[in-house]
């Protein structure tokens, strides 16, 4: 199981400290998902595409870098990119509680 390609936590400092536009943030996410999932295509059958997108109150985690840059559509976008990178993989959202 691949865990995880998009997460609000554990982002590189160059991502979080950069003053990126929404288009640039989307490109960063696309490059990351494509690079990681293409590398392991056919070797990992299930991917946690988005991790912990929901807050403890069951609403979308508004503090997420990806949410702040791309809005709630970042979740759908991440899944679209993941599907394009590995069409045969099973895709999931991972959360806790």
Structure in words:
- Helix 2 runs parallel beside helix 4.
- This protein has one domain.
- It has a three-stranded parallel sheet with strand order 1-2-3, with helices on one face.
- 41% of the residues lie in helices and 18% in strands.
- The protein is built from four helices and three strands.
- The chain is an alpha/beta fold and 97 residues long.
- The radius of gyration is 13 Å and the shape is globular.
- Pfam families: Glyco_hydro_10 (PF00331).
- This is endo-1,4-beta-xylanase.
Set down the secondary structure blueprint.
Elements: E1 2-7, H1 13-16, H2 22-39, E2 46-51, H3 65-70, H4 74-85, E3 90-94
Parallel strand pairs: 1-2, 2-3
Helix pairs in contact: 2-4
DSSP helical segment count: 4
Q: Which regions contain 5 or more consecutive residues with pLDDT less than 50?
A: none
Gyration radius, in Å: 13 Å
Strand content: 15-25%
Q: What level of helicity do the residues show?
A: 40-55%
User: How many runs of DSSP E, i.e. beta strands?
Assistant: 3
Calculate the terminal CA-CA distance, rounded to whole Å: 20 Å
**What is the H-and-E element order?**
EHHEHHE
């Amino acid at each position: 199981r691949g865990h995880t390609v998009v997460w609000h936590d554990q982002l590189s400092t160059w991502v979080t400290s950069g003053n990126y536009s929404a288009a640039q943030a989307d490109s960063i996410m696309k490059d990351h998902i494509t690079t990681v999932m293409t590398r392991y295509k056919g070797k990992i059958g299930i991917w946690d595409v988005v991790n912990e997108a929901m807050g403890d109150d069951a609403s979308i985690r508004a503090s997420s870098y990806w949410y702040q840059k791309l809005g709630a559509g970042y979740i759908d976008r991440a899944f679209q990119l993941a599907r394009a990178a590995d069409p045969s993989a099973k895709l999931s959202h991972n959360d806790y509680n």
